[in-house]
Amino acid sequence: MADEHEGHENDEIIVPQIMERRYVPASLKSVAWEGFNFVGHEIKIVESTDLYGAFVWPSALVLCYFLEKHGKQLCIEDKNIIEIGSGTGLVAIVACLLGAQVVATDLEELIGNLQYNILRNTKMKSDVVYNHPYLEELLETLDHLCSENSTILWVMRFRKENTLQENAFIQKFQKLFDMEVIFDLPSLSIKLYRARRHNQQK
């Protein structure tokens, strides 16, 4: 799987490939949306600039790009996937279109928009539920949900103001899971990780 390490190449090559998947419609209707092309589908996402989580961030595009390129290698079809912090639902939608059974979670105030986007783009193949965003609870959730056969795909945008908190979370995470960097994209301050429980065969 030589292409699995492409994230370690110069991100000047891969970042434009990821970001070109987003497009803005020529004319906006009563509901503003952005379009994305993944898995041979045009995905229409309604966003809101009023809510932090109701916007498609570059991190979501990175993860969608990875899933599209490596979905067959990951045997994603018919897998059970939970996305924690789904935002607008773009990643959950792409996973659904690749054949996975997806549960998408986020904050209560984001659920309405998240559910609208998912139902509009997946014909009701995903469930939408509420979840808390806190890091301690996130780690407990991952620990609870992941069996020895589970794989975690985790995309993170690093922010200077959160460095101590993020580093502390990663240290706790590494006590439970082995992790590797798949994509390292400094121009976006984003890393995509793959993780499995300790002692699991790779």
Gist?
With about 200 residues, the protein is an alpha/beta fold. It is built from six helices and nine strands. Helices cover about 35% and strands about 25% of the residues.
Topology:
Layout: H1 11-19, E1 22-23, E2 33-38, E3 41-46, H2 58-70, E4 80-84, H3 90-97, E5 101-106, H4 111-122, E6 126-130, H5 135-145, E7 152-157, H6 163-176, E8 177-185, E9 190-197
Parallel strand pairs: 4-5, 5-6
Antiparallel strand pairs: 1-2, 2-3, 7-9, 8-9
Account of the 3D structure:
The protein is built from 6 helices and 9 strands. With 202 residues, the protein is of the alpha/beta class. The strands form 3 sheets. Strands 1-2-3 form a 3-stranded antiparallel beta sheet. A 3-stranded parallel beta sheet has the order 4-5-6, covered by helices on one side. A hairpin with a 4-residue loop joins strand 8 and strand 9. The chain starts with 10 loop residues before the first helix and ends in a 5-residue tail after the last strand. The mean pLDDT is 83.
